[in-house]
Amino acid sequence: MGINLQNSGLEISAGRADQFPKRRICNIVFSGRSNVGKSSLINTLLGRNKLARVSSSPGKTITVNFYSVDNKLYFVDLPGYGFAKRPPEEKKQWSALVESYFSSMSGRNDEMLVVQLVDLKVGITRDDADMLEWMNTNGVNYVIAATKCDKLNKTEFAKNLAAVLNDRSVEEDTDIIPFSSLKGTGKNELLSVICDFAEI
């Protein structure tokens, strides 16, 4: 692996589109509903405990967080979606900011890989399906990280993973990686997919 994961840090928490970094490097984008484990997954991948902060209030933080990883790529942490208890104004702010990010990457699909997080205990929600279908329509490269896989017994794991694999919103041949931040399951597999995509 030609990258030093320890050489990583938060470059900016962008609350507006004009704050997005201008550097043309590969973006690895982490998308998923609130409380799906994005911050924990990012920390696990980078071998850091508290680089990405875990919010105590899901959906509270409406920023796009850019982590520079060895100056070779960005880990881009999108704000979580599906936060039913948040006010409509905050939901509009979330939509506008996320749409601005993807608009800023228009024409750069070869520089962007989305890691779509799905809670394996819950399965693909309506919000997850909407996101997947949008990516399918727009030709966005993505891989699915099926988080919290350690919370299931063998029977539940097999059943729930099959449900994700066979969901109609998931394109055929999509990489689906069971992941556990607690046990490190899937870490090496996901890093391999990321490095292959970024050609590092």
CATH architecture assignment: 3-Layer(aba) Sandwich
Major sheet description: 7 strands, mixed
- Principal-axis shape: globular
- Compute the number of helices: 5
Number of strands: 7
Overall average pLDDT: 92
In the CATH hierarchy, what is the class?
Alpha Beta
Q: Largest sheet, order of strands side by side?
A: 1-3-4-2-5-6-7
For the record, the count of structural domains works out to 1
Describe the structure.
There is one protein chain. This protein has helices at 38-46, 88-104, 126-138, 154-165, 187-198, and strands at residues 8-14, 26-31, 64-69, 73-77, 112-119, 141-147, 176-178. The model has no long low-confidence stretch (mean pLDDT 92). The protein starts with 7 loop residues before the first strand and ends with a helix. It is globular and about 45 Å long. It is built from 5 helices and 7 strands; from the N terminus they run ββαββαβαβαβα. Strand 3 (64-69) and strand 4 form a beta hairpin. It is α/β, with parallel strands linked by helices. 32% of the residues are buried. It is 32% helix and 21% strand. The chain has a single domain (8-198), classed as Rossmann fold (3-Layer(aba) Sandwich), CATH 3.40.50. Strands 1-3-4-2-5-6-7 form a 7-stranded mixed β-sheet, sandwiched between helices.
